[in-house]
Design brief:
Radius of gyration: 36 Å
Strand order of the largest sheet: 6-7-8-3-9-10
Structural class: alpha/beta
CATH topology of the largest domain: ABC transporter transmembrane region fold
Number of strands: 10
CATH superfamily of the largest domain: ABC transporter type 1, transmembrane domain
Number of domains: 2
Helix content: 55-70%
Strand content: 5-15%
Largest sheet: 6 strands, mixed
CATH class of the largest domain: Mainly Alpha
Mean pLDDT: 81
Distance between the termini: 83 Å
Shape: elongated
Low-confidence stretches: 1-12
Length: 611
């Protein structure tokens, strides 16, 4: 017998945040949600049929119990056995139908999750780079996993629960009033006594749960920070193990106390609810006994009283659940709204219809009055103008934060210009087929990203069908061959999360080898040799020069040795190309470049000369 006491708790209440952010229910939102359910309408129809069938069949054990009391007990053994078998069959049938309904529900919900995750992943994969620099990674993962997975509970839980509870309440009320409307009214009178205490105690318990969740979040934050690679290293270096342990024990103790308080808060309430649950049947027995003794209702029998008691217990739990429909419904809509918010985020950087695919071999790159800013209130690039001739290598230098990386990020359209245009081979990059454009560009950044796989897998990311000879050649050019040869697993060596198992130089050389394997027409090196020591850098400098031969190359450099090899040097400052020329020409001007040379490049050169 399921009493209503189990259903109380936070699920019956909306948080203040939920109330403030309550989704706007309209036809467009409902239609959009139904769009995900529409492909599975035959399965949904089958679910509703099984729910209704289960609700109807579930009545029979109680009704048969009444017949057993009235017609079989002490009178007809054959009928008793027959009714018991029939009760067992109907009970079994109800359970089998419930299992079938549960299976179909789970199948539908998982297929919808499958569809939504595919759609979300595809959508996020094509979002512009700015999206990932502004959104928190945790939020993205939450929408992708937690929110979409929560749809399962909406489909198999909220929606089915509403239909099932309505079917159970309606069929039970029909059966009750059909058997005895007087006893049915007596049983229904108890319902308010079950609901009101539930609301009162539920609010108190909800507050405790809220406090406990806040402390749990604090404990999770401690675990995440202190047991991560970087966090644990910091703790060790500053010998903070004991202090951090004391912090954890303190928070853990508070979590334990709140959890215990939450569990105890419902203990006496469950006792009280159990008593109220039994009050209904007792009242029915009292009223039924009164009517039978007084003989005021000649149609009433002991079996009817027994069946009514059985059915009234079947009524309480669904009624309470239906009283909380607005909460479940609001949370379900809020879940879909959060998901749709991501789907509705605009993607300004898309491939144009019938995008162009011009030959970019030995192509020149031109910036014409380019302006850009991440924040409209803080312009970063205001009027950038320069041309990189085909096959030439230009170096970009400038003070920290001047926008050097932003300048080169405009070529592969990681960002789009706000004014002016960037052209490659005479074509605005915004008119290119986006996939084709990025296939022609090779980029090695200062912070090289590696997947947690093998060296071979990271290399093949550039070219899936690369031959062993091509891989070997790329590794040789990037001065990676000796390192791989010294690894027991060779190319199958696992690099770790973000390449954690490799040194900075090894990671950078692997990234360079990956770009070499891609064989791009345009090369962008964003301080690509910053993680390499002087010996390693010199060893691969000639290889990089060979790689840049015949390719249009732009290099953001912090080492004078790299800058000196550039065909032309561009100095970015205050949103414009402040100076342009060769090393000697810029030194003679005595401007920004000379200042950079004196404060940065010359010091590095002196250190390299001493080493």
């Amino acid at each position: 017998m399921a009493g209503p006491g189990r259903g109380f708790g936070p699920r019956g209440f909306l948080t203040e945040e939920e109330k403030q952010n309550m989704p706007q229910v309209n036809a467009a939102l409902i239609k959009r949600i139904l769009g995900y359910l529409k492909p599975y309408w035959p399965q949904f129809l089958l679910v509703f049929v099984t729910i209704l069938l289960s609700a109807v069949v579930g009545l029979f054990p109680s009704i048969i119990t009444g017949r057993i009391v009235d017609e079989a007990l002490g009178e007809n053994m054959a009928l008793l056995v027959k009714l018991l078998i029939l009760a067992f069959i109907t009970l079994t049938g109800s359970q089998v139908i419930s299992v079938l309904e549960s299976y179909i529900n789970a199948w539908i919900s998982q297929r919808i999750i499958f569809d939504m995750k595919n759609q979300m992943y595809d959508h996020l994969q094509h979002m512009p780079h700015a999206f990932f620099t502004s959104e928190k990674q945790g939020d993205i993962i939450t929408r992708m996993n937690t929110d979409i997975s929560g749809v399962s509970s909406v489909i198999s839980g909220t929606l089915s629960s509403i239909v099932s509870n309505i079917a159970t309440v309606v069929t039970t009320l029909v059966a009750l009033f059909t058997m005895s409307w007087k006893l049915a009214l007596v049983g229904i009178v108890v319902i308010p006594l079950l609901i009101l205490p539930t609301k009162s105690v539920g609010k108190k318990r909800y507050q405790i749960l809220t406090d406990a969740q806040a402390k749990n979040d604090e404990m999770n934050q401690l675990i995440n920070e202190n047991l991560s690679v970087s966090g644990s290293l910091l703790v060790k270096l500053f010998t903070r193990e004991e202090k951090e342990y004391e912090r954890f024990v303190g928070v853990n103790e508070e979590v334990t106390k709140l959890s215990l308080k939450e569990q105890n808060s419902g203990r006496w309430f469950r006792v009280m609810m159990g008593m109220f649950t039994q009050l209904g049947p007792l009242l029915i027995y009292f009223a039924g006994g009164w009517f039978l003794i007084a003989k005021s209702d000649p149609t009433l029998t002991i079996g009817t009283v027994t069946a009514t008691v059985s059915l009234i217990n079947r009524l309480y739990r669904p009624v309470e659940s239906l009283l909380n429909i607005h909460v479940d419904f609001t949370r379900s809509l809020a879940l879909f709204t959060r998901i749709f918010d991501y789907f509705d985020m605009p993607n300004p950087i898309q491939s144009p219809e019938n995008g162009l695919k011009p030959d970019v071999t030995d192509a020149e790159v031109v910036y014409e009055h380019v302006s850009f800013s991440y924040d409209p209130a803080k312009p970063l690039l205001t009027d950038i103008n320069f041309t990189v001739p085909g096959g030439k290598m230009y170096a970009i230098v400038g003070p920290s934060g001047s926008g050097k990386s932003t300048v080169v990020n405009l070529i592969p359209r990681l960002y789009d210009v706000l004014g002016g245009r960037v052209t490659v081979a005479g074509t605005d990059v915004r008119d290119f087929d986006l996939e084709y454009l990025r296939q022609q560009i090779g980029v090695v950044t200062q912070d090289s990203y590696l997947f947690n796989g093998t060296i071979r897998e990271n290399l093949l990311y550039a070219k899936e069908n690369a031959t062993p000879e091509e891989i070997e050649a790329a590794c040789w050019i990037a001065n990676l061959s000796d390192f791989i040869a010294n690894q027991p697993e060779g190319l199958e060596t696992v690099v770790g999360n973000r390449g954690l198992k490799l040194s900075g130089g090894e990671k950078q050389r692997l990234s360079i080898a990956r770009v070499i394997l891609k064989d791009p027409k345009i090369l962008i090196l964003d301080e690509a040799t910053s993680a390499l020591d002087s010996i390693t850098e010199n060893a691969i400098q000639e290889a990089l020069e060979a790689l840049m031969e015949g390719r249009t190359s732009i290099v953001i450099a912090h080492r004078l040795s790299t800058i000196l090899k550039a065909d032309r040097i561009l100095v970015v400052k205050d949103g414009v190309i402040a100076e342009a020329g060769t090393h000697d020409e810029l030194l003679q001007k005595g401007g920004v470049y000379r200042e950079l040379y004196e404060t940065q490049f010359r010091q590095i050169l002196d250190r390299e000369g001493k080493s």
